[in-house]
């Protein structure tokens, strides 16, 4: 059995600017019933940040909360439990400098939820810290400071490279890098802004399909995991 979840916008309060959002779930392969979308019984308590993909790990989906117009501002992540379909708030690391604009990233690395951001009280030029969620206990959640990396901007850790002697793959801006944790060195692996793709053109009068090369203008980098759809024929 699989569950597919999606968060959607209902309305926006014209006075506060806060979005009212809901959650729908589609169960695939459960009880022989045809898959269909249904709204969860639990109301979604907070809006989530747009253009930020939820991270799924250990039976829960995690979102960054859109705190811009919320009073008081919750110091946590929105969690949706796939088994009981209820919401909770997972407390952020105490030493995270979340500021006013939530400048941190969420990723899953090695089966653990990772949060990359800056520590409170760091100077203007500072390293980034990668925390991992050790125990999800709502307001008493426990995070562990796992890595410190010296890069120029906020990045996404992708994973530790096998047989590398301590190197990590990270996604920073429009490039994939190999980051040496011991010597704090960055090596470019792939320049994503140079990627091109081919797509079918409109059917020609001859009845055949042509192709046209296009430059990518937006992309996301995620580790591949088995899913409902095979990437091969």
Which key terms come to mind for this protein?
single chain; 233 residues; mainly beta; four-stranded antiparallel β-sheet; globular
Structural notes for this entry:
The chain contains no helices and 17 strands. Mean pLDDT is 84; it is low at 202-211. Helix content is 0%, strand content 45%. The strands form 5 sheets. The protein has a 4-stranded antiparallel beta sheet with strand order 4-5-6-7, with no helix packed on it. The chain has a 4-stranded antiparallel beta sheet with strand order 8-9-10-11, with no helix packed on it. The chain is mostly beta strands and 233 residues long.
Structural class label = mainly beta
Distance between the termini: 22 Å
Hey, roughly how much beta strand do the residues contain? 35-45%
* Number of strand elements: 17
Largest beta-sheet characterization? 4 strands, antiparallel
Q: How would you spell out the order of helices and strands?
A: EEEEEEEEEEEEEEEEE
Helix count, DSSP H or I runs of 4 or more residues:
0
Instruction: Give helix % range.
Output: under 10%
The residue-averaged pLDDT reads 84
Note the quaternary state here.
single chain
Q: Unreliable segments (pLDDT under 50, ≥5 consecutive)?
A: 202-211
Radius of gyration: 21 Å
Task: Give, in spatial order, the strands making up the sheet with the most strands.
Answer: 4-5-6-7
